[in-house]
Amino acid sequence: MPPRTRDEYHAQRVTIPAGAFLRGDDTRDDQAPRQTITLAEFQIGKTPVTVAMYQEFVRENPNFQSSQASQPGEMPKPPGGFGWGGKWDGKEGHPMVKVNHRDALAYCSWAGLLLPTEAQWEKAARGETGQRFPWGDSFIPTALRFSTHGFGRGNGTVPVGSYPTGASPYGVLDMAGLVWEWCQDWYEAGYYQHCKASNPHGPEDGTHRVARGGAWDTSGEDWFHCAHRSRFLPHSTFTNLGFRGVFLPDSPLERAL
């Protein structure tokens, strides 16, 4: 059942144990080198944040104005195409999209979450041994929501958790396909070549933020490789771009902005 509130989201969170994992891939410059990275324990949302969860945030913070809303206390304008029909109604269990990096951070602050670093995201997606996809090393079309009609085309989102066979080694869902997911990090193509090997948090600054996972309108299995790095300008709001949160053991659950 897709989570509808932040409390349900917290109840479903998945613990990723402390320790090392294999990050990256040597076949692409911005994913190289493949290396061992060590992370502290963290907890991550089992699914992306849903429309219902974001609606709860907007209702409880009537003075918050999303960059995609025309006035305070209003939801971002729903997409008008790509299978959505221009309405949020009936999409409560779908991943929240059209949220830029700033608004994703605002939601996370209210909900007692953070955006994952891309190292955290990748470990949660592929486990310790560096497998290619969340479910293993072979591409399985029935394990994810993706486009079979070519890049940039597709039938839109579906409720989160609709592809249980695509679960990661830790049981995290929707880490390949459905929506791209914002990460904390600024994007730098050569970052892996000089980053620290313990709890990396990305470059100090940049022009684009990292996004991971591929989406419903993405075609071609390489885009769903757990090591694949994409990026968007921080103000980007697309129908294929969402987010999930991480909950650190020592982070308080905040109740207001």
Could you walk me through the main structural features you see in this protein, from its secondary elements to its overall organization?
With 257 residues, this protein is an alpha+beta fold. The chain is built from four helices and nine strands; from the N terminus they run H-E-E-E-E-H-H-H-E-E-E-E-E. The strands form three sheets. The chain has a four-stranded mixed beta sheet. The chain has a three-stranded antiparallel beta sheet with strand order 1-4-9, with helices on one face. Strands 2-3 form a two-stranded antiparallel sheet. The longest helix has 11 residues, at 101-111. The radius of gyration is 17 Å and the shape is globular. It starts with 5 loop residues before the first helix and ends in a 10-residue tail after the last strand. Residues 1-11 have a biased composition (Basic and acidic residues). Residues 1-31, 64-83 are annotated as: Disordered. It comes from Armatimonas rosea.
Order of helices and strands: HEEEEHHHEEEEE
Beta-strand percent range:
5-15%
Work out the count of structural domains: 1
Given helix and strand content, the structural type is: alpha+beta
CATH domain topology: paralog of FGE (formylglycine-generating enzyme)
Biggest sheet: strand arrangement: 7-6-5-8
Number of helices: 4
Cα end-to-end separation: 28 Å
Proper CATH architecture: Alpha-Beta Complex
- CATH class bucket: Alpha Beta
Q: How would you state the average pLDDT, rounded?
A: 91
Brief synopsis:
By secondary structure, the chain is an alpha+beta fold. The protein has 4 helices and 9 strands.
